Known about the structure:
This protein is an alpha+beta fold.
Amino acid sequence: MKYDQSITAPQELAQGQTSDTLWTIRPMQNSDLPQVLAIERSSYPEPWNEELFHHELSLTNSHLLVGCAAQEIAGYLCFWDLGCEVEIHNIATAPSMRRRGVGQRLLSYLDEWMARRGISDVFLEVRCGNEAAIRLYQRYGFSVTGQRRRYYSDGEDALLMGRHRESSGPSRPLNEAKGS
Ligand SMILES: CC(C)(COP(=O)(O)OP(=O)(O)OC[C@H]1O[C@@H](n2cnc3c(N)ncnc32)[C@H](O)[C@@H]1OP(=O)(O)O)[C@@H](O)C(=O)NCCC(=O)NCCS
């Protein structure tokens, strides 16, 4: 079992305190979907719909986490555990919370999650023009491993990005994320 998505008070997976805000990372629940969908729709030209989030929540190898600042959902991460590697399927931060370390915290949590399981490889696809996401991934040691021409329905190319760590250790401890 990954997490119990149905429990009313989800367990916290990580938490920290900035000068003014308590932040936590916990499993996403069905009841989070209204907030998550609002962030999703403001983040992507082709957002996931509610049905797709429900589907991801039902898959045993799909992990969905929310990052909360003062109890409000600030961002989320969806990744697949493929056994020997991890694929990031979705990461987004609420527009009002961007450049405040939410993405970093979610990726730092993923680093620790992978290190605990001895998983060294992580990969994803990102739009060629998505500079914010590409910079975030580069900061976490990802590099471009390939390109898929006209991958998205509007014709934009996708970059394949990945990272391999010999030690599979985290790049830095979770409490060193921005603002902690
Ligand atoms: C990509 C995204 C998740 C980044 O989230 P975030 O919480 O704002 O990221 P962070 O604050 O943790 O940023 C960490 C680092 O990433 C880089 N970065 C993030 N946003 C950036 C931007 N707009 N321009 C340049 N670099 C950026 C910077 O290096 C930043 O560190 P700094 O703020 O100290 O310079 C966010 O912009 C987003 O939700 N975009 C829409 C959804 C999306 O495109 N997801 C990725 C799909 S592949």
